[in-house]
Specification:
mainly beta; 49% strand; 2 helices
């Protein structure tokens, strides 16, 4: 009897349809990143990154798996004034002449609610890669995605800039950087 059950089980497993996966791409016109850091212990400075590309693949029936790849053009960053912008682009911070892109590759999604979750992945900035977890909020529950409608996504995290080799001005500029990503993803 065992010999009949095993081949039948293997046939059923092989014939079972793979879970539907949907691919989306970042809509650059409706997406941006902001990074906020404490300044002189009294206020803060914000850098904006308006140029982002990438995409995400997710499966509503297997929400623990995600392939999120985003690239941010650090050469296009802006700050409140030209002095701050130039410093951030320089060797003390992003060193855009040698490292023009910042990237995030997310590989695991843990849903914490119908439209909220955490994406674990790797952030690369200034040539240094570190593990980072993003707290994400979807505009609609991704488990109900059909692959036909756009999805909005807001993600936040806090990093230590020193972990990425940005150690300059330590008495003036805080070490913790709050990052907010807002993006609209359209079906591919």
């Amino acid at each position: 009897m065992r010999s009949r059950v095993a081949p039948l089980f293997l046939l059923l497993v092989a014939a079972a349809p793979a879970p539907a996966s949907y691919a989306y791409r970042v809509d650059p016109a409706a997406s941006a990143v902001a990074a906020k850091v404490g300044f002189m212990g009294l206020g803060s400075k914000t850098a904006n990154f308006p140029a982002m590309t990438g995409g995400v693949t997710l499966s509503p029936s297997a929400m623990d798996r995600i392939a999120l790849n985003v690239s941010i053009d650090a050469t296009r960053l802006t700050a409140g004034d030209s002095v701050t912008t130039n410093r951030l682009k320089g060797k003390d911070f992003f060193d855009v002449a040698n490292h023009p892109m910042v990237s995030f590759k997310g590989t695991a999604l843990t849903m914490t609610g119908a439209a909220t979750g955490k994406v674990a992945g790797q952030l690369t900035a200034r040539g240094v890669t570190r593990p980072v977890t993003l707290a994400v909020t979807f505009s609609s529950p991704p488990a109900k995605a059909t692959g036909r409608d756009p999805i909005g996504l807001t993600a936040t995290t806090t990093i230590n800039r020193r972990d990425f080799g940005m150690t300059a001005y330590s008495l003036v500029v805080g070490k913790k950087v709050a990052i907010t990503i807002k993006t609209r993803m359209t079906p591919v």
